[in-house]
């Protein structure tokens, strides 16, 4: 998530969805003029189109929000609420690579298992984490908040906040 992506989409509403961020991140970008691409074959700056896509999906997907702006009048912390799914994040629209793993279909669905939060500003702050319990066969529906030496149960409804900084997803196994 870049500053311009966030500002273009959501500063008016002070919220944006994770899917909107991923979609904007993967939109083709024309490189020209001051931002031209250098062609090593012809040794010249050329207009080009840059596209970002995921080639293969990891078992654990970590998404980091750029929460600090260092440019222009909006210098400081970006206090935007990013609405992210707890279960069923579908990464297939952002993938280009193979959808098979060992000849079997590969899941592109992810379930959240932890969130790192940052409260405070650019020069100071405090970190907390929401973590999901593990059962013998996988994740449970129970969440805890970890804050320094304290760890206590928390309702799932409290996991989504404007303080989310890093999201940790685990790929859902195929049934």
UniProtKB/TrEMBL annotation:
Q: Which Pfam families match?
A: UCH
UniProt keyword annotations, A-Z: Hydrolase, Protease, Thiol protease, Ubl conjugation pathway
Q: GO terms for molecular function, please?
A: cysteine-type deubiquitinase activity
Query: A Gene Ontology biological process annotation?
Result: protein deubiquitination
Question: Carries keyword Secreted?
Answer: no
Which transformation does this protein catalyse, written as a reaction? Thiol-dependent hydrolysis of ester, thioester, amide, peptide and isopeptide bonds formed by the C-terminal Gly of ubiquitin (a 76-residue protein attached to proteins as an intracellular targeting signal)
- The EC code for this enzyme is 3.4.19.12
EC category name: hydrolase
Source organism superkingdom: Eukaryota
Chain ranges of the USP domain = 1-172
Annotated InterPro entries: Papain-like_cys_pep_sf (IPR038765), Peptidase_C19_UCH (IPR001394), Ub_carboxyl-term_hydrolase (IPR050185), USP (IPR028889), USP_CS (IPR018200)
Q: Which family does the entry's similarity section mention?
A: Belongs to the peptidase C19 family.
Q: What is this protein called?
A: ubiquitinyl hydrolase 1
Annotated organism of origin = Ectocarpus siliculosus (Brown alga)
């Amino acid at each position: 998530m870049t500053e311009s992506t966030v500002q273009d989409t959501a500063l008016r509403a002070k919220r944006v969805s994770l899917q909107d961020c991923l979609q904007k991140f993967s939109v083709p970008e024309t490189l020209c003029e001051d931002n031209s691409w250098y062609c090593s074959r012809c040794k010249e700056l050329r207009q080009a189109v840059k596209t970002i896509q995921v080639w293969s999906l990891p078992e654990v997907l970590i998404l980091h929000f750029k929460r600090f702006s260092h440019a222009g009048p909006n210098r400081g912390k970006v206090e935007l609420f990013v609405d992210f799914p707890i279960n069923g994040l579908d990464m297939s629209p952002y993938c280009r690579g193979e959808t098979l793993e060992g000849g079997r279909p590969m899941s592109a669905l992810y379930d959240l298992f932890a969130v790192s939060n940052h409260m405070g500003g650019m020069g100071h702050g405090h970190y907390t984490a929401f973590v999901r319990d593990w059962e013998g066969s996988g994740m449970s529906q129970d969440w805890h908040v970890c804050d320094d030496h304290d760890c206590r149960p928390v309702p799932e409804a409290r996991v989504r906040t404007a303080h989310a900084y890093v999201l940790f997803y685990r790929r859902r196994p195929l049934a």
